[in-house]
Amino acid sequence: MPRCALVTGCSAGGIGSALVEELHAQGLRVYATARSPAKMNHLVKLPNVTLVTLDVVDPASIAAAVDTVRQDLSSSGDSLDVLINNAGQSLVYPALDTSIDEAKRLFDVNFWGVIAVTQAFTPLLQAAKNGGTLVNVCSISGFLYAPWMSVYNASKAALMSWSETLRLELQPFNIRVISLVTAPSPQMSCRILA
């Protein structure tokens, strides 16, 4: 049986999409998720990749995604071995000019959405035969404080703290928690400047 992974935030051109392609290349069966399935069309032809609609801030969407994945796993006899919380948004704006509503929306996706998805999918990880792995995509911005990104920086710092605490709490359940700290690459800078 191939190992199975679920990745959030798999729109074309992002980290989630690249993770899906790499996991697929390594022989894993992958559930790729995004709010809009149309943004994952580039993944549709990959065998053993299933596209699932998932909005991390919508409880009904999360519940539907869990049901879809649970039923699919049950019919194949597989288990969910890896959950990668990658979905996120950015906000580049001066700290004092950022509205509270904008800040809350960003935290809903980058922090509360991760908690909601993790709580919903952890029972499936607990059923993994050799223990599950939970990966939370954090950011160097949680440590290095770039101007104009105060709310984003704060959301990623909160995620890192929560993730590291969760690592300790899930150890007894044979679930590994990894805080994956990402940073901009030269290629990303070229795309931004282009």
TrEMBL record:
One GO MF term: acylglycerone-phosphate reductase (NADP+) activity
Domain of life: Eukaryota
A Gene Ontology biological process term: phosphatidic acid biosynthetic process
Entry-linked InterPro entries: NAD(P)-bd_dom_sf, Sc_DH/Rdtase_CS, SDR_fam
Record-annotated membrane-spanning stretches: none
Gene Ontology CC: endoplasmic reticulum; lipid droplet
Keywords assigned: NADP, Oxidoreductase
PANTHER family: NADPH-DEPENDENT 1-ACYLDIHYDROXYACETONE PHOSPHATE REDUCTASE (PTHR44169)
Family: Belongs to the short-chain dehydrogenases/reductases (SDR) family.
Record's protein name: Uncharacterized protein
